[in-house]
Amino acid sequence: MDTMLLTERTLTDLDHARLKRLLAGTPAGQATSAALRTAMDNADLVPARAVPPDVVTMYSRVRLVASTTSQPQVLTLCYPEDAEPAEGFVSVLSPVGSALLGLRVGSLAAWQTPSGQEVRARVSAILFQPEASGDFVL
């Protein structure tokens, strides 16, 4: 596994500010919050208008391909209040959500399911990114 693909992240300054406020209201010891905090602390920050179109930002719709099954899955990364996992809307506070934030197309995401199973999937495409479509306030 290429660990560089797991750690290189880019966040927009707007997403970073909003997520920082969100995390201020969550327990610091919560595992998912800790993973998101680590990702945010190590991310390169860019202005929303300058984020490359191949970066997973908030409300990006991405296609993942699972490493073990090669099955594609489409997810939209969202805030907890908009999460609808059955509809493919995953919270940034979920293990998969925090694993995806800031990755680029081609990157490998890794997370653990609630049962402790490790899952890995490659970001194969970004089907929608708000910033690429000119939406900088979504």
From TrEMBL:
Pfam families per UniProt: GreA_GreB (PF01272)
Keyword set, alphabetical order: Kinase, Transferase
Name of the protein in its database record: Nucleoside diphosphate kinase regulator
Domain (Transcription elongation factor GreA/GreB C-terminal): residue spans on this chain: 52-126
GO molecular function ontology, one term from the record: kinase activity
Segments traversing the membrane: none
Native species: Pseudaquabacterium terrae
PANTHER family, alphabetized: REGULATOR OF NUCLEOSIDE DIPHOSPHATE KINASE, TRANSCRIPTION ELONGATION FACTOR GREA
Keyword Nucleotide-binding (UniProt): no
Entry keyword annotation includes Oxidoreductase: no
